[in-house]
Design brief:
Length: 326
Amino acid sequence: MRASRLVSLLLLLQTRGQLTAAELARQLEVSIRTVHRDVEALAESGVPIYAERGPLGGIRLVEGYRTRLTGLTADEAEALFMSGLPGPAAELGLGTVVTAARLKVLAALPSELRGRATRLIERFHLDAAGWFQGGEPVPHLGALSESVWGDRRVEIGYERGASRVSRRLDPLGLVLKAGVWYLVAAAEGQVRTYRVSRVSGVQVLDERFDRPRGFDLAAFWAESSAAYEQETPRVDVTVRVHPEQLNQLRKAVGMRAVEAAERLDAPDPEGWLRLRLRLEWPDEAPALLLGAGASIEVIEPADVRARLIRTALRILERYDVAPAGS
């Protein structure tokens, strides 16, 4: 356990340069005291590692030092090859680079690990996009990727509804979520998120920018995603559904909404189930529920039921069919 942690500490310093004891403790999930003991142990074993005091100090390796000791375990080797997503890598312009890197890592592995990694490639494939969803066109993803990598400021055109706006951004990172690419960038002192498919043009400027100290892309994304889900408007809808048509309801409003629904005990003369669903974006709820067809009936709220009825009547009028009882 400690040997693996020492290797991880070395590799963190090798890849990231200087880090504070607190930053290392957070990454390794140990105490700051443990980090100091590990640093002392590495120094005693001959590793050129040292600590600088002061507000800008930290722990670092002597410039130019590189360790070849990776301590790659069987599970780590398998995880490495499971993490390769050829589609997104190709969109970033790194498809051939990823393939070459995987081949080199595979060739460098001991025979036992190489065999396990090869079996993994043969048996598992990761596809990030959803069913029946072609990837969004992202013609400017390559330019944005280069600007993120080189800390280069960009000027972009961005589609906002029917209008197009211009933004000068400090691109901090790119995130792939459910097959959709997002740019995380600083603008006017605030970090914001932009959907890459809505970027209509990119000009990479000669200006460089300084990344915010301590900015963590994964942490920012987790926090902003949670805030987005928390702030999304919702509406509670009570529906009747035939027990054999639950799958149709799941397809219409989503698995998560149905599984989280409250089942009501109100008696039903036809033996149908009564569920209280919590749906996101109230304005879109009637269209979603309409997708369930005649397998459900909306009971309340009254405005959602009324909008559903109006939509159904308009559909009948479109096909020149007189509603029953009219």
